[in-house]
Design a protein that fits this description.
- This protein is α/β, with parallel strands linked by helices.
- The chain has two domains: about 70 residues; about 270 residues, Alpha-Beta Barrel (TIM Barrel), CATH 3.20.20.70.
- Helix content is about 30%, strand content about 20%.
- The strands form three sheets. Strands 7, 8, 9, 10, 11, 12, 13, 14 and 15 form a nine-stranded parallel sheet that branches. Strands 2-3-1-4 form a four-stranded antiparallel sheet. It has a two-stranded antiparallel sheet with strand order 5-6.
- Strand 10, helix 6 and strand 11 form a beta-alpha-beta unit.
- About 50% of the residues are buried.
- Bound molecules: phosphoenolpyruvate and manganese (II) ion.
- The site of phosphoenolpyruvate has 9 residues, from loops.
């Protein structure tokens, strides 16, 4: 049998778990898959009954569950429990609440970041995104400001109160990213990086896990399992589009996967229409599609001067377009009884999504 512990377990709770193990005459042997999975090895033969083990451990704080075999029923499975709600600052994802993360692709400059942060905050974003470490396809492209970028994020967090979402590329950068990030992003290119996932499974910080552009839904959930089995239960999935044979959009937002994930897993799922579209004129429509499929929120790239952006400028939208998308998302949430948390921004109650141009006058 195995004991699954919470990542947030403290030393007093751990001591209680150890005392319960001693009471049953079993040793706790940590497993490779993370410090929060322990095998119960019995000194005596026969060992304690399953019922005794469950009774001894499951009510203890810091214990998630007793398992016969690790992975027998994946931790992401919706059969395990009701929707997980992940709270990050003023944002809540899942369990009927949705929120919007917005900001530039990369942190480029402190003053500019502050301006973007204020623009998106006043229009309904509750978290600010921005990469200090950028995973670029070419080694000659802008790689991000690194530590300087993290400092800018920290300053803007202090100035605005917005929680920060920023990407970590390398296990060696986790501790510096954790000094700033309220939520750590694992990008599409790192979704299958099991070393990184194992490390992030042990940290006490929510993780935004983006789907790899060539990953199946099962592989995506397998990556989430790495985080969960390490003991980190605050995982938000992000569908950001997969590769298709067509070049019209940068990627293809898999709305079917969003709808499926809402059924298959208790974890919240958000949509990133920016990396799916790859072009600013389609971000609003694709963002609406993600919300209509049941996404628990959006992550959107916003820039004040997209033509001057150092990365992904072609897909960045401006503040007005962003406000329109937040309004759409609020209306779509309301349609199925969910709430979009928008901070001080009020989604206009009377608004309904504007009639698309091609339908005007045909009613
Ligand atoms: C990003 O969010 O800026 C990013 C690099 O996204 P992805 O990993 O989905 O390509
Ligand atoms: Mn980007």
């Amino acid at each position: 049998m195995f004991l699954h512990l919470q990542s947030t377990i403290d030393s007093a709770q751990r001591a209680e778990v150890e005392a319960a193990a001693r009471g049953l005459g079993v040793d706790l042997v940590p497993q490779d898959s993370g410090a929060h999975l322990m095998e119960l090895v019995s000194a005596g033969v026969p060992g304690p009954e399953r019922g005794q083990v469950v009774a001894a451990f499951t009510a203890l704080p810091g214990v998630v569950e007793v398992l016969d075999r690790p992975g027998e029923q994946p931790l992401w499975s919706a059969t395990r429990h009701e929707s997980t709600m992940v709270k990050v600052g003023d944002a809540v994802f899942g369990g009927g609440s949705a929120a919007v993360i917005a900001g530039p692709c990369a942190v480029e400059d402190g003053a500019e970041l502050l301006e973007i942060a204020r623009a998106v905050q006043s229009r309904g974003a509750t978290l600010l995104r921005g990469g200090a470490f950028k995973p670029r396809s070419s080694p000659y492209s802008f790689q991000g400001l690194g530590a300087r970028g993290l400092q800018h994020l920290k300053d803007v967090r202090e100035a605005t109160g917005l929680g920060i979402v920023t990407e970590v590329l390398d296990p060696r950068e986790i501790s510096s990213v954790l000094e700033v990030a309220d939520m750590v992003q694992v990008g599409a290119r790192n979704m299958a990086n099991s070393s990184l996932l194992k490390e992030l499974g042990t940290v006490d910080r929510p993780v935004l896990l983006k789907r790899g552009f060539g990953a199946t839904v099962d592989e995506f959930l397998g990556a989430a399992e790495y985080l969960l089995c390490g003991g980190n239960s605050r995982v938000v999935l992000c569908e950001r589009g997969i590769r298709s044979f067509d070049q019209v959009t940068r990627n293809l937002l898999d709305v079917g996967a969003i709808a499926h994930l809402r059924e298959a897993t208790h974890l919240p799922v958000i949509a990133d229409p920016s990396h799916a579209a790859g072009r600013s004129d389609l971000v609003r429509a694709i963002g609406r599609a993600g919300m209509a499929a049941g996404a628990d929120g959006l992550m959107v790239e916003v820039h004040l001067d997209p033509s001057a952006a150092l990365s992904d400028g072609q897909q960045a939208i401006g503040p007005d377009e962003f406000e329109a998308l937040v309004t759409d998302a609020g209306v779509l949430c309301e349609l199925d009884g969910r709430t979009l948390l928008t901070g001080s921004f009020q989604v206009p109650q009377s608004s309904s999504p504007k009639t698309p141009t091609h339908l005007r006058g045909t009613a």
